[in-house]
Structure formats: structure tokens, C-alpha cells
Write a structure and sequence with these properties.
329 residues, alpha/beta, D-Maltodextrin-Binding Protein, domain 2, metal ion binding, SBP, Ferric-bd
């Protein structure tokens, strides 16, 4: 395994035993190409397996998988959140028991129908220039208050935001989520298409606060150390501090389940996990991997997280219904 030094971090080039197969592997990826394209390319180079990738929104691809059923061309579905994985549980084959046994318990899928590939947290990003310490909300629910009118951005079509809403529903019920969404709309919260556009909107002065996954800010700071955005969490146990996962499952309609299994094994290898945390600013899901030093320790993150089991984030359709009701989809 080759060792490189990049931006002060030790990066391990992915290097695994080669496999050969004449059969292509088709991946439905809710993870963006900019985030995972290099990992997939490296897998192709190491294995000789040709990969076809369909990129799209996680919830969009989850819906497509359910519509396609046993006619789906997908071999694997790589989603950016546990909620979407749970929503399509029925289209996955059960994985070998050993696959999830190596995953840290907090990230493990109880049904062994999918497996986590990385961990992440929901965070509050804010303007370094316009937000004072006393302006920071104690709870994500505070963002619907008059104090934050016109200052907040969010991405209702984003899969991770939708998974957060599903967790909110699990923790406090549909009525609480419905009222919060209505409050955001009434408070002139601004809609964005994804996490990155919220960060850019804060930097450009459009908004002061945004709701994103933890790993985005690190990527902006890597390109510009003076990027005028910071991030934080909410009070201990607040649902806004949700710890979620990206994960993957083998589609039952797959005609290349062997190749699909190999891709999953590849993503859970120490080399791939080191790449994901070092380059992607996410948390590894196996032990023995050096955590990215720019991230808060996972123990600290879990201490502040809400008591929500990621295995219960299965009702994506119920969450989408609430978003439609609020006029956000």
C-alpha cells in the first residue's frame, strides 16, 4: 500500500488483491461523483471490473429501485443516508453475516440487508462575520423563531436533510415536524438544492445559517483557509445533531452479485476507509483506521447525538409527504 502526503495528512493509496470478471457492475449512486468517483475508479483499476454508474439524488434513486423491482439493472445501491437504505430494504438481498460484523456497532445495520460505508453528522454552518456567539441556537427547532427570520437556508430535496426529518419524526412525531416545517416557511427560510450551495450562500451574504452534513465545510476550507464559514452543533441530545451513515446494499435483481459483494468488501477495506476519512472528511465505520484530525472525535459526536436508532429511519415516503404538504417539494 503506497503512502502519500497530502495537505499535511497521510493518505493511503487503495491497493487490494486483483479480481477479474467479464461482467460489468452497475451502481446506482446517491453519492455525488465528486465525492466517490475516485474510489470507484480505483476499484476498477484494482479489480479489472468495468463499472457503470448512475448518479442521482438518493431519494430519487430509491424510488426508482422500488418502481423497477425485479427488472432493475442495478447491482448495488450506494445511498447517502440510512433512511433511504431502510426505505428500500425489500429490494436488497441479505448480506453474509461477516460483512456487518466488522462494522462498529453504532453504524451497524441490524437486519444485515445493507452495510454502512461511512459515518457523518448533521451540523449547523454559520457566517463567521455576521453571527455572534449569542446568536447560535441551542436547538435546531429554534431556527423557526422570529430571531432567525430570513437568515436560514436548508435543502428540502437533499437526502440527508430528509433522513434528518425522518429521525425528527421518530423522536418527536409527525405533528412536531409539521409545525417546524411550517415555521421555517413562515420565517422566510430559503431553499437550496444541496449542502454546498448553502455554504456558498453564507459566504456570499445571502443567509447566515445552513443545515448540512459535517464533511462539506472541510472541503471548502481545504481550498480556501479563509472561507468565512464555521460550523457547530446544537445542545446535547438535540435531534439536529443526528449521526447518520452512507451505506450500500446488493439489489436482489442483480445479475452480478459476486461483483457487488466484492465492491462492498472493497469499500470496507482499511485502505478504502482510510481514503474516505482522509479525503472525504467522514468517519470510518471499521476500527483500526486513523481518523481525520480535522474532525471531532467520534466519542464526542456520539455523546451529543440524539437517541435515534438509524435502523428506524425507514419511512422515507412519510417524510416526503410532509415536505409536499409544506409546499417544499
Amino acid at each position: 500500500m503506497k503512502k502519500l502526503i497530502t495537505a499535511g495528512l497521510t493518505v493511503f493509496a487503495l491497493s487490494l488483491p486483483s479480481w477479474a470478471s467479464a461482467q460489468d457492475l452497475t451502481i446506482y449512486s446517491g453519492r455525488g461523483e465528486a465525492l466517490v468517483g475516485q474510489v470507484i475508479k480505483q476499484f476498477e483499476q484494482e479489480t479489472g471490473l468495468k463499472v457503470d454508474v448512475r448518479y442521482g439524488g438518493t431519494s430519487e434513486l430509491a424510488t426508482l429501485l422500488l418502481e423497477e423491482g425485479d427488472k432493475s439493472p442495478a447491482d448495488v445501491f450506494w445511498a447517502q443516508d440510512g433512511g433511504a437504505l431502510g426505505a428500500v430494504n425489500a429490494v436488497f438481498v441479505e448480506l453474509p453475516a461477516a460483512v456487518n460484523e466488522g462494522v462498529l456497532p453504532v453504524f451497524r445495520n441490524a437486519d444485515n440487508k445493507w452495510v454502512s460505508t461511512s459515518g457523518r453528522t448533521r451540523t449547523l454552518v454559520y457566517s463567521k462575520d455576521r453571527v455572534k456567539p449569542e446568536d447560535l441556537p441551542a436547538s435546531i427547532k429554534d431556527l423557526a423563531n422570529e430571531k432567525y427570520k430570513g437568515r436560514v437556508g436548508f435543502a428540502p430535496t437533499n437526502g440527508s436533510f430528509q433522513a434528518f426529518l425522518t429521525a425528527f419524526r421518530v423522536a418527536e412525531g409527525d405533528d412536531a415536524v409539521r409545525e417546524w416545517l411550517k415555521g421555517l416557511v413562515a420565517n422566510d427560510a430559503k431553499k437550496y438544492r444541496n449542502n454546498g450551495t448553502q455554504l456558498e450562500a453564507i459566504a456570499n451574504g445571502e443567509i447566515d445559517f445552513g443545515l448540512v452534513n459535517n464533511y462539506y465545510l472541510g472541503r471548502y476550507l481545504a481550498n480556501d483557509s479563509k472561507f468565512p464559514v464555521a460550523q457547530t452543533g446544537f445542545g446535547k441530545g438535540d435531534v439536529g445533531n443526528l449521526v447518520n451513515v452512507a451505506g450500500i446494499g446488493v439489489v436482489s435483481a442483480s445479475d452480478n452479485k459476486e461483483g457487488a459483494q466484492r465492491f462492498i468488501e472493497y469499500l470496507l477495506s482499511p485502505a478504502a476507509q482510510q481514503y474516505i476519512t482522509t479525503q472525504g472528511n467522514e468517519y470510518p465505520v471499521i476500527s483500526g483506521v486513523i481518523q481525520n484530525p480535522t474532525l471531532p472525535p467520534i466519542a464526542e459526536v456520539l455523546e451529543n447525538a440524539p437517541a435515534v436508532d438509524i435502523n428506524k429511519l425507514t419511512d422515507l415516503e412519510g417524510t416526503l409527504a410532509l415536505l409536499r404538504e409544506a409546499g417544499l417539494l
